[in-house]
């Protein structure tokens, strides 16, 4: 066995539930509570930032709040890269999930303290904790099924249901407390949710067996002291702490809008440098080069999709709060629906329609009509554009009527969910199929890099969309034109792109 390699993962001990290892349900509920806390807090985030100081908010303008929102969401995805490295090299996935969950909970409770300084510190802690937990909990799911195959796919499907169940519950709880009682109660509720996840994880972790227990790579020899990787971690933490101290003491001031703009250039630069190095030094054969070209096209399309889709928590959330009728009479009493409750619509649609789309692709494949990978990406972009076309109509009505029914947002989320189901699972699968096998993990990191890019653009765009009611229909139409045009171009090019892919389906 090569130096530093780990022995094969042993199956988790104990009985099964529904034919799956009991450890799967440990991870199901851990992820459910983590996503409950994440999406619950996210439903409040931009609403809290733009609310007036007199009402307990931060009083930020839409552009500043949108930029901070985009930086936060992008950082969550970027943090998954070092988080995966730490688990692989130093901690192992099980301990990374545990420590990550504790940091997330600390972040939410820090957000519950009503000061500007604790707000930014809390966001940073949630980002760091999510970077440790999110990628590594999925790794453990895979290691519960060392045999691979259809049972592993079914296990991930069950796990995915936990994600969406948490995303459904979180906004309902946190928005009810945050919007109707006190913003900081909503943030604290997110922390309580993460504590529930940690408690059940600790009580049932024995069912995970050796899956994810040990690091996959070790460079230090026995008796030679601390792994040098810890020195890199310590240096990175020291750098982050220095920036935090400088920012909180206002020795250095940060402009969120400029920072988000510069970050987009950095992400684009990183992607360009990586692929340039791949083509120059990775010794790719002809077919690998062609598939890497396809991956570049798909990553650009992915970033564009997420730049629209991720406005659910920013511009569309602000639209729900400002321009959507949410007061109804029920049993003789006035009932004001929190704006954040509409954030639960997407996970409801995901749970309802994910099996439908899965069956659709299988049925079309049997008839040899299954669309190609780039065609599915094109459909996703067009559906995203159609959702924003609905919003253009809704915002035009706002100009004349002041407010519109929530059915407009619900229909938008329906189109966006259909687009997500065309693009997101297909994209994850495409990366594993198209990437040179020796670079699959790195290419998956680039997928998350593209997602981070989309989140940054979504935050910047949100500030422009909601800045002026009069310009809102035009802003939504601009998004429609860009996304639909890109989708149609990709659809036209799908045949030559398919030739580059070869026999991969």
Which descriptors would you attach to this protein?
2 domains; single chain; 505 residues; disordered N terminus; Growth Hormone, Chain: A; mainly alpha; two-stranded antiparallel ribbon; globular
Given helix and strand content, the structural type is: mainly alpha
- Helical stretch tally: 16
Care to count the β-strands? 4
The succession of helices and strands, N to C, reads: EEHHHHHHHHHHHEEHHHHH
Tell me, briefly, the overall form: globular
Oligomer: single chain
> How many separate domains?
2
What distance lies between the first and last C-alpha atoms, to the nearest angstrom?
A: 35 Å
Name of the CATH superfamily of the largest domain = MFS general substrate transporter like domains
Stated plainly, the CATH topology of the largest domain is called Growth Hormone, Chain: A
Strand order of the biggest β-sheet: 1-2
Describe the largest sheet: 2 strands, antiparallel
CATH class of the largest domain: Mainly Alpha
* Overall CATH architecture of the largest domain: Up-down Bundle
Could you write a compact summary of the structure shown?
With 505 residues, the protein is mainly α. It contains 16 helices and four strands.
Write the topology of this structure.
Blueprint: E1 16-17, E2 20-21, H1 22-50, H2 62-78, H3 80-91, H4 93-111, H5 116-143, H6 149-180, H7 183-204, H8 229-248, H9 256-281, H10 286-309, H11 315-323, E3 327-330, E4 333-336, H12 345-366, H13 373-401, H14 407-434, H15 440-465, H16 472-501
Antiparallel strand pairs: 1-2, 3-4
Describe this structure in words.
- The chain is mainly α and 505 residues long.
- It has two domains: 10-217 and 228-254, Growth Hormone, Chain: A (Up-down Bundle), CATH 1.20.1250.20; 255-505, MFS general substrate transporter like domains (Growth Hormone, Chain: A, Up-down Bundle).
- The chain is 74% helix and 2% strand.
- The strands form two sheets. The chain has a two-stranded antiparallel sheet. It has a two-stranded antiparallel ribbon with strand order 3-4.
- β3 and β4 (333-336) form a beta hairpin.
- The chain starts with 15 loop residues before the first strand and ends with a helix.
- Mean pLDDT is 86; it is low at 1-13 and 219-224.
